[in-house]
Amino acid sequence: MAEGRRTFWPTVLLGAAGAGLAAYAGHHHWVSLDHADPFSAGQQAGLDSPATTALALVALAAWGVVLVTRGWVRRGIAILGGVAALAVVPTVFTTRHHLLASNSGSQANAWPWIALVAALLSAAMAVIAVRKAPQWPEMGAKYDAPVGAGATVITTQQPLEEQSSLDLWKSLDEGHDPTQDVD
Predict the structure, then answer these.
(1) How far is CA 1 from CA 70, 133, 135, in A?
(2) 3-state SS class at 106
């Protein structure tokens, strides 16, 4: 269990940082135009990679979900995040090639390569997350909402106005809505 705790935060932080950096890189201009054409000055809006940004944001969201889930759900979300991060790889090459081919006299800059390396980092951390997830710490079931037939409904003896703040918080922790009794 100690090894799981040591790998949890570095893996999640590196995975989220990689996905975030890939999304950031996908949003920047991937080619720079060499010529000073007065008619194309406002035409540079399409020189980024929306597909890269979207896939990297899916991977970033998956890292957020990995933080709050447990068990097989955590592993499944880590797999989804890893697949989204790996899907960035072909978008880097196809978008870069398309942008260079469609904009004559343009040069590629470092943003496609930054997106590629960052996405690969996020995918590598997703592989580690799938392998190490059973050893990682989990949020306590105490915070899960009561569901099903086993859920108990707590009724308070005192009116809402007469309860202390501590009593109200305890009833919320136990799954009771103190405003439910108010007419």
Answers:
(1) 15, 11, 6
(2) strand
CB distance 115 to 47 below 8 Å: no
Q: By mean pLDDT, which of 101-110, 150-159, 166-175 is the weakest?
A: 150-159
Q: What are the structure tokens assigned to 64, written together?
A: 């957020």
* 84, two tokens: 């989204």
Judge contact between 64 and 16, C-beta under 8 A.
yes
* Token representation of residue 131: 């392998």
pLDDT band for position 10 (cuts 50, 70, 90):
very high
The domain ranges of the chain are 2-141, 145-181
Question: What pLDDT, on the 0 to 100 scale, is given for residue 165?
Answer: 76
**pLDDT tens digits for 76-109?**
999 999 999 999 999 999 998 888 888 777 778 8
CATH no. of 2-141 = 1.20.140
List own/partner pairs for 92-99 with CB under 8 A and 24 or more apart. Answer: 92/49, 92/52, 92/116, 92/119, 95/30, 95/49, 95/51, 95/52, 96/30, 96/31, 96/49, 99/30, 99/31, 99/47
Summarize pLDDT for 41-78 with one digit per residue, the tens: 545 556 888 999 999 999 999 999 999 998 999 999 99
Let me know the angle formed at the C-alpha of 73 by 67 and 79, rounded to the nearest 5 degrees: 85
